[in-house]
Here is the input.
Amino acid sequence: MMIRTPGSHEDGSRTAASAEPAPSARPSRGDATREKLLASGHDLMLARGYSATSVDDICSASGVSKGSFYHFFDSKEGFGLAVLEAFHREGVERVRAGGYVRIEDPVERLRGFFDHLEAIAPEFWAEGCLLGTFAAELGETSPAIHARVAELFDELVARLTPVFLAVVLDEEEAAALAEETLVVIEGAVIMARAHDDPARIATGIRRYRISLEARIPELSRAS
Here is the structure.
């Protein structure tokens, strides 16, 4: 999963010299080929795991030659890192797209955050979470990917902490709640996969939210 807090996105403004709208850029054929590889790799690695997915499998699923694969990626491990980064970016964008980011009241913003998580969870994490999959599988076989997974989880905690900090007013507690939220999501994803029931992800998030309302008095106040 990938999460950006309000105001952390890049400034897309342009200088006066380039004030006129630029024509929308079409993705190049190379970009499209790379994206096809990443999409196929994402689906296969979620379904089978990293180790059970070969370069041949990825090329066959995407309809791309092995030569083209190695044009974009120097190794399967490098490809795995690219798939991981793409999944992370998409997750950040999905979560950041929620309307809660425009809510000024911190309590209502936190409520909106959980509303948005519940709404996107059954679809976005229906097939699993690549961070959790790679963390469980690649601790010994790919130190580079395993280390990057840890970094991305730490980044997610840092991105989520301000959402909680505005309510609990203690940075250590806010960071702990941010990490706890990720733990809940990962656990809910595993349960959903075990029971082939994506709705369990939203249910797990909702139950966690209810438990937070009992622990954080501000959250239980009337809207």
